[in-house]
């Protein structure tokens, strides 16, 4: 695949968010490379993000797509108390920036917020995400996803569809 235009990058990011909102979990998983690292670091006591998912606290960490596949399996089969009933979400994406390009990848950053409806309550999550997109195949795949959640307090379990 040739280098992605900004319009193609935007379309890919919007599609991934829409697939999560539509609960189209198989198509959502297809956006991720098998070796994807999916990481949401935590904020430490000094208001700094943790830097190493292997030795410091993370809110979410999957070293490859198998972790995401297991998470989706639990959501789809109602084996996740945190996801039963499945919440309704609406993702809004903004400020998509191209950070760097290599021959086979592009690094991007964007802001997001997600509204989440469950048990007659609406919650809002917000932050920014850093993706590395593998562009070596027919279509881009997320090979690294780092999500920075900026909420100070969350009153429920945070999950992959919230971010």
From TrEMBL:
Belongs to the bacterial ring-hydroxylating dioxygenase beta subunit family. One of its GO terms (biological process) is 3-phenylpropionate catabolic process. The lineage of its organism: Bacteria, Pseudomonadati, Pseudomonadota, Gammaproteobacteria, Salinisphaerales. CDD domains: ring_hydroxylating_dioxygenases_beta. Coiled coil: none annotated. Gene3D superfamilies: 3.10.450.50. This is Benzoate 1,2-dioxygenase subunit beta. It comes from Salinisphaera orenii YIM 95161. Keywords: Aromatic hydrocarbons catabolism, Dioxygenase, Oxidoreductase. One of its GO terms (molecular function) is dioxygenase activity. It comes from the Bacteria.
